[in-house]
UniProtKB/TrEMBL annotation:
Residues 273-308 are annotated as: Disordered. GO terms for molecular function: nucleic acid binding; zinc ion binding. This is CCHC-type domain-containing protein. It comes from Araneus ventricosus (Orbweaver spider). Residues 273-286 have a biased composition (Low complexity).
Amino acid sequence: MSPFAIEKGLAGIGGSPKSVKKLRSGDLLLETNSAIQTKSFLLAKSFLNNPVTVTLHRTLNSCRGVISDNELMKSTEEEILEGLSSQGVTAVKRIFMKKGTTLIATKHVILTFNTTKLPSTVKAGYIYCKTRLYIPNPIRCFKCQRFGHSKTACRGRQTCCKCASVDHLTSDCQSAELLCANCKQPHSSDSKDCPQWKKEKKIQEVRTKQNLSYYEAKKLLFPEQNSMSYSNALKSSISQPSQTDERLTKVIVPPLIKLKPVQPNVLRVKNVSTTKTSTESPSTNSAAQSKIKKHSQNAKQAKASDQWELVKEKKQKAAKLAFWQNGGHITISVPLPFSYKRGLS
Ligand SMILES: [Zn+2]
Ligand SMILES: [Zn+2]
Ligand SMILES: [Zn+2]
């Protein structure tokens, strides 16, 4: 159809959209100006006398962020979703790390928001969690080893991940030499050192940061490259490959910090304690303090510490008074069998 006819047809449905792009698949990607305009287009059943289907774009109307907090380790994805849904969160996915054959839960949780702008924090219960932009890893097909589509959409040839041979499965590989199916260098196709992987990762970064489609980001980064370098599988595939179903378990995460059981004598167990001044002072950790004292052989130091105790006492008294007069911060400590590293602060 002529672009003039298309433009007229679109204006006839819901007025001129903010932008119109033709995708590789032949579909039109519209950016609308208002919710009313969106609705008009969504209700459309035909376009220039042809039947059409209009759907919301799967990824361009939302954004994803990561929060990382030990306090949320015990919360299920369902609980987090319920707790954050009023802040625009529509999906929650915890990142798991693969160790051998077992999956280990990490403190990193991916949140999907129903907006295109990532909020800087979310409030999970009483905790404020900082959000970081989530940049998904590139999708690599487990069948043909190429990037940009998944195994289920693959029309390529079965290729060994280790030696790039098309004669056997990766699990049956006997080859001693590694060969990447994408760049032909001596590493396996799933290597993070692969220049092709790095390139794809960069595309994901630009795509996420600028809220672009995969092909827009690719064109922006590598304008000189044509589609020849992509697999035949992709070329023959009619639909635009989706970038949304990344393998969550393959996401690189910082190494896990092993949680150490806390020695009972270091645990600060108080019921309800005092004011801001006293909680901020590092020397109020009485158990640690007495421990330091016991080991101190220096008399001078002990004297200084006595003086400090006096000053501290005075300060605490003054602060207590101010607290009863003005109100302030209180600490609530609950004795626990163990605690997270951060929980002790
Ligand atoms: Zn494939
Ligand atoms: Zn092989
Ligand atoms: Zn490679």
